[in-house]
Amino acid sequence: MFQTAEFQENNHANEIPVVGRILCAIAIGALSLGLIVVLMFTDNSSSMLPSLVQDKLTQSGVDNPVTAVLLNFRSYDTLLEIGVLLIVAVAMLPGVPVGSVVNRDMPGGNRPSGRLVSIVPNAQVNPVLEAILRWLVPMIIVMAGYMLWTGASLPGGAFQSGALLAGAGVLVQLSGRIQFCFTSTMAKLLLTIGLITFVIVAVGVAAITGVILQYPVTLASPLILVIEGAATLSIAAILLLLYNSLATQTFEMSPEPSALNEEPSALNEEPSASNEEPSASNEEPSALDEEPSALDEEPSALDEEPSALGK
Amino acid sequence: MGFDLFLDSCIVIGILTLACLCLATKNLFTAIILFISLGLFVTIAWVRLDAPDLAIAEAAIGAGLTGALLLATWRQLRIEPADRDADTGSKSGGHNVSNR
Fold it and tell me: CA-CA distances (angstroms) from residue A28 to A39, A118, A292, B25, B34?
C-alpha cells in the first residue's frame, strides 16, 4: 500500500503568474502584520492558567510545570500525540518483506537481517567517524537518560530525550557498521510500547480513582516516570524508523509494477533460509553476489526515464 | 538592556534573512542547509524567550532530525525534476545525485 512512494521535485510555483504571486505575498504579509499587531495588543498576563498550574503543582507529582501540564493536567493530549506518532510510524514502516530492495549506497542500507540491530559484515567504515562515535554515542545515551529524569523538575522530558536517542541511532547507522531492521518483532514492540504503557496506566488509574488518566496523588510521580520512559523508547524508535526508511529504501520511480512485483517474491524465500541456522549464512554471500547484477539493471531503467519526460 | 536589544535584533534579522534565503534559493541542498541553520537560530530565539523546553525540542527535532530526514530525502531525488528545468540546466540538487 505504501510501497511506491514517489520522490520527485516538481516546482509548480513558477506556473503562477507574477501578479498572482505578488498578490499572494501582499496577502500573507498583511495577515502576518495583523497577527503581530493583535499579539502586541493582547494582554496575556490576565490569563488564569499559569497561576492555576502553579497552585496545583504540588498535586501533579512533578516540579516542572511543563511536564505537569503535558503528562498530568492535559495527559489526554499527550496520549493522542503518541498515537499520532505511531500512525506515522505505521505509514513509514518498510512495507516490503525483509531483504527487499535496499539502497546500498547509504550506510546501513545492506540486507537487513531478522533482528532489530545487526552488525554488517565487511562494512566500509570510516575510522575517524567510528572513533568519534565510540565516545559520542554512550554520552548521548547517558544524556538522554539524564534529560528523561530531569524532566520532572527542569526542562526536558520524553520528547527531547527520545529525539536525542534517535539522533544517536542515526549516527550509528551512518557509521555503516550497524544496521537496523524495523520489520523485526523487537522493533514493533519498541514502536508501540509507549502507547501500550500509556493506555494501560490510563485504564489502570481509572480503577483506583474512577476517572481515566486521573492519577492518584501519591502515585503520580512514579506513574509519570514510567509513562515517560516508555514514551521515550517509542519516540526514539519512531524517529529512527523515519530516517531509516527514507535513507535506506530504494523507492521505485518507474510506474511499471512488473519489476516491482518480481523482486519481493524472489526475495521472500531468503529470510526463511537465513533464519534457519548460522550455517546457512555461509550461503548468503553467494546470494549477495547475485543481487548487484539485478540492481545494475535498475539505473539503466532510470536513465531512460528523463528522456521519456523530455518528449 | 542595550546589549540584550542588540542580541535580540540580531536573532530576529538572522531568522528573517535565513527564512527568505531558504525560500528563495534554487539549489535544494543549499535550501536544506539554510533550513537547518534557521532551526538553530530559532533555538536561540526560544532560549531568549525563556522557553528552554521548546529550545531543546527545536534543537533536537527541528534542526537535527529534520535536517537528517531532508538530506536523506534529497538523496532519493535521483531523476531530473521536470522537462523545463532540465532544459535550463541543473536547477535542483536532485541533479547531483542522478549519476548513481
Answer: 16, 50, 51, 20, 22
